[in-house]
Amino acid sequence: VKKVSPETNNKSTNLLAILPFKMNNPVDSSIMHDFLMQDLSKYTLSGLNILPSILTNNCKDYSDIVTLLDKTKPDYYLAGMMVTHGDKPFLRH
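RE: above sequence
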């Protein structure tokens, strides 16, 4: 048996907005944001699309975030903050 019809791509795609993590040092926040963007972009072929950092890296407060989410309608978003317990920093999402 030979298949003559073209294969359809039924792979679902999801849009992810990676928001800058709230951290004590803005440089650390930028580095974390860039790292997450680069690391998660490897899943593009699996159907994960990531909003460009030019759209997300300036989301500093609640109104910026709500505006971005309303306009871009991502399926998911990732946000977090640095919390210090004693002298050890932790990331919470």
